[in-house]
Amino acid sequence: MVGSAASAERLQLEPLSVSSPTLRDGSPLPSDYSCRGSVGNPPLRWSGVPDGAESIAIVVDNNDSTTRAEVHWVVFDIDPRTNELTESAIPVGALEGRTTSGKVGYEPPCRPRENYRFTVYALDRKVGLAKGAPLSETLKSIADRTIAWGRLTATNIE
């Protein structure tokens, strides 16, 4: 598959189911997971990973910033048999890439009136980059390998 054929097929895939014991889709992000809190990343769960998946990636971003879109966290090369992420942790063997600001790791959201997307991607192979890889390289690699995805969106911050 190349170009638009690959994109068209990806659009037809069933999305992954993404949930959290502490976040609800369409509800505010609890302040504990924002820059006002001290907990770190929220826990996430997902299901519906296709049999052909070789790894999982997670991207946390906001796309409605008045200044620019921001990526707050990138985790990749998660074992495809993994189906959850615990609070303030990453799965064994997973790697973190750089955020928009250049930080490696979870960068808590700060803008109270924005939406924050927690997107889980099933990939047909590992991202294959090192910890702290540049954001542009990591996002391109995830996009090129995505075979299914799902999202939970927090609206605003409590």
Shape: globular
Largest sheet: 5 strands, antiparallel
What is the class in the CATH system?
Answer: Alpha Beta
Number of domains: 1
**Strand arrangement in the largest pleated sheet:** 6-4-3-7-8
Q: What share of the residues lie within helices? A: 10-25%
Task: Supply the number of helical segments.
Answer: 2
Could you name the ranges where pLDDT drops below 50 across 5 or more consecutive residues?
1-8
In percent terms, what proportion of residues is strand? Answer: 25-35%
Q: The CATH topology, please? A: Phosphatidylethanolamine-binding Protein
User: What sequence of helices (H) and strands (E) makes up the elements?
Assistant: HEEEEEEEHE
CATH architecture: Alpha-Beta Complex
**Global structural class:** alpha+beta
Straight-line N-to-C gap: 43 Å
Tally of strands = 8
Provide the CATH superfamily.
PEBP-like
**What is the radius of gyration?**
15 Å
What does this structure look like?
By secondary structure, the protein is an alpha+beta fold. The chain has helices at residues 3-11, 135-145; strands at residues 17-19, 44-47, 55-62, 70-78, 84-85, 95-96, 115-123, 146-155. The chain has one domain: Phosphatidylethanolamine-binding Protein, CATH 3.90.280. 13% of the residues lie in helices and 30% in strands. The strands form 2 sheets. It has a 5-stranded antiparallel beta sheet with strand order 6-4-3-7-8. Strands 1-2-5 form a 3-stranded antiparallel beta sheet, with no helix packed on it. It is globular, with a radius of gyration of 15 Å.
